[in-house]
């Protein structure tokens, strides 16, 4: 299978590379308009290197493309891939607003092309643990909360992706860069669309132009509440890079995170005490699994683990969150997405 990697200086690209060395995969071409990491990656795979993704697409015959790049550039890159009828995966958030993602979804569906988005909590041990606790994913959640506080924005600059903290190119700060996964996971776990959104944000920790702390709330039509707290406030070091915690409350159980585990209490069997299961909370490990899965899905004609329809719904919430924050936390009511 011949693979192209478009815009190889994106900070997520290193998480994909080991999986692309598997038998039967050949990375034939790499583009890197920023000219930071592309040369080394192309050398690693013996690939042809381009400074223009569009030139790569015009010259190369590939079976699958992994699309990265600045959030502001992703829609145009993806449209070029679609025009060449190449199945692809595109890093979230796929653009800087919902309308861009809606257009990509429409074009992809019209072309009948495979497209996957790495909303990787859909393949996480956390999801497996919740399934195991009830025999399936619980459908009776009342509230869910996520707290993901990463290290300082300077880590993007150190990774060669300083644009990620410039809203002109990224669309925002910690909300659009970190909250994406948890908005999607809330939709997946509840099985319901988000009806109302509110958010508050600030940049008091690092005083940059993008928010470095964000508190986002979601509500479904029947009142299930989701809370997503993200930021760049954690004083990270190699031994501890971030804080990640969660709590889930349903009619039957209450689950919360420990340092390396999930702890579950059954409301109908309190005498059993707290059940504890070790859990891998380091999310980077799921990207190689994502690569393997999407290439197999593409080969077999299976539907993607997460699609542009899922990214579109996530970005509807994202747009509402930023609108709410601009309006001092005013509640936003979301219309149903129509196709």
How would you characterize this protein structure?
This protein is an alpha/beta fold and 339 residues long. It has 2 domains: 2-119 and 288-303, Rossmann fold (3-Layer(aba) Sandwich); 121-281 and 316-333, Dihydrodipicolinate Reductase, domain 2 (2-Layer Sandwich), CATH 3.30.360.10. The protein is built from 12 helices and 15 strands. The strands form 2 sheets. It has a 9-stranded mixed sheet. A 6-stranded parallel sheet has the order 3-2-1-4-5-6, sandwiched between helices. The protein is globular, with a radius of gyration of 20 Å.
Level-2 CATH architecture of the largest domain: 2-Layer Sandwich
- Residue fraction in strands: 15-25%
Which percent range fits the helix content? Answer: 25-40%
The CATH class assignment of the largest domain is Alpha Beta
Largest sheet: 9 strands, mixed
Number of strands: 15
Oligomer: single chain
The H/E string reads EHEHEHEHEHEHEHHHHEEEEEEEHHE
Q: What is the CATH superfamily classification of the largest domain?
A: Dihydrodipicolinate Reductase, domain 2
* Unreliable spans: none
CATH topology tier name of the largest domain: Dihydrodipicolinate Reductase, domain 2
Mean of residue pLDDT?
94
Number of domains: 2
Derived from helix and strand composition plus strand pairing, the structural class reads alpha/beta
Number of helices: 12
* Rough outline: globular
Distance between the termini: 33 Å
Radius of gyration: 20 Å
> Numbering strands along the chain, what is their spatial order in the largest sheet?
14-13-12-11-7-10-9-8-15
